[in-house]
Amino acid sequence: MSYSTAGSLRSVTLDDVLGAQKMLSGIARVTAMEGSRHLSQLVGAPVLLKCENLQRTGSFKLRGAYVRIAGLLPEERAAGVVAASAGNHAQGVALASSLLGVHSTVFMPKGAPLPKISATRDYGAEVRLHGQVVDETLAAAQEHAARTGAVFIHPFDHPDVIAGQGTVGLEILEQCPQVRTIVVGIGGGGLAAGIAVAVKSLKPDVRIIGVQAEGSAAYPPSLAAGRPVAIENPATMADGIKVGRPGEVPFAIVEELVDEVRTVGEDQLSAALLLCLERAKLVVEPAGASPVAALLGGGDGIEGPVVAVLSGGNVDPVLLQRVLRHGMAAQGRYLAVRLRLTDRPGALATLLGVLSVADANVLDVSHVRTDPRLGLTEAEVELHLETKGPAHCAEVGQALRDSGYTVMD
């Protein structure tokens, strides 16, 4: 592929995706597809997980980045490439460039997780930290491209990138020929668009459902308007799909070929990540878990077999810790409770005894005695508890009230 002019709306065809598949042979892994008994029971049909979290660099991004850079003209390769990313795209560009012998400069926000910065460097990129938010980082990368002549590698808004991501769709059809529904996360739209081109060209009756985080869902208003529409201040823990405006190229494809776009909340994302870890034994980032989140409510309007694309597994350990706790809370397995008690010797021990009888595991205790809100003989205690589900949470709360404690929250 020699296409390299940004901004053109040249369509992506099945031949482009087939060409990308040949180009990626021996470069990108044909990732595993694993069945999920738990999700199959929830949906009422077989559910399989396409494990792009096990791809080289930990996400599908290597596919599109490699095809894009491999398609550059010799003089473009000589000028090097530049990208802006907080994570997955950065690593995909870094490894693809190294494999092709092209110098890469990757701009990352100053607050990017240290493991992602380190991995991007280890894959061979020159990393430059700039800005506090991705928009500032993007501006710096584009300025670098204009100043040096380096080719800017967009994470999703380019036909070659979309063709590379579309190879995921070809693998799905090879691994599960009977598939009826594919569920895939959508940020800018490159992965969903590529899969849609590949799958709809070969099996037009397969239903494709895109998933966005509620706080970063630019596609529903864009589809309603018939053009890409920007949303203000996108916010979600799923940074892999936190995109404020769809790309022009993928939007045209998604509008034509993707059957439906659904949204999921942060609680659903947390619960999905926890499910992947506990039930499937797979480490998946929040964006990668978004298709699973969409299936947690059951199989309404979904015909099986279903393939859910786990797009990536590059999750910062600090975020993972927070998300797992959030997921446990969403499932009623983690309870934070604040109450007041009489401040006297042994009062805290008595409280812990009540919780022990209720079989609640105490993870953390915060004990406040001096506060203008408290009476002279009062103390306030905040407890973080590990519980066994919503019913057990209710039992713990009732046990505290039965023992005479005033539960504040």
TrEMBL record:
Pathway: Amino-acid degradation; L-threonine degradation via propanoate pathway; propanoate from L-threonine: step 1/4. Gene3D superfamilies: 3.40.50.1100. InterPro entries: ACT_dom, ACT_ThrD-II-like, Ser/Thr_Dehydratase, Ser/Thr_deHydtase_PyrdxlP-BS, Thr_deHydtase_catblc, TrpB-like_PALP, TrpB-like_PALP_sf. Keywords: Allosteric enzyme, Lyase, Pyridoxal phosphate. Its cofactor is pyridoxal 5'-phosphate. It is an enzyme of class 4 (lyase). The keyword Disulfide bond does not apply. It comes from the Bacteria. Residues 336-409 form the ACT domain. Its EC number is 4.3.1.19. GO terms for molecular function: threonine deaminase activity. The keyword Lyase applies. CDD domains: ACT_ThrD-II-like, Thr-dehyd. Belongs to the serine/threonine dehydratase family. NCBIfam families: ilvA_1Cterm. In the native structure, TdcB is in a dimeric form, whereas in the TdcB-AMP complex, it exists in a tetrameric form (dimer of dimers). This is L-threonine dehydratase catabolic TdcB. It comes from Streptomyces anandii. The lineage of its organism: Bacteria, Bacillati, Actinomycetota, Actinomycetes, Kitasatosporales.
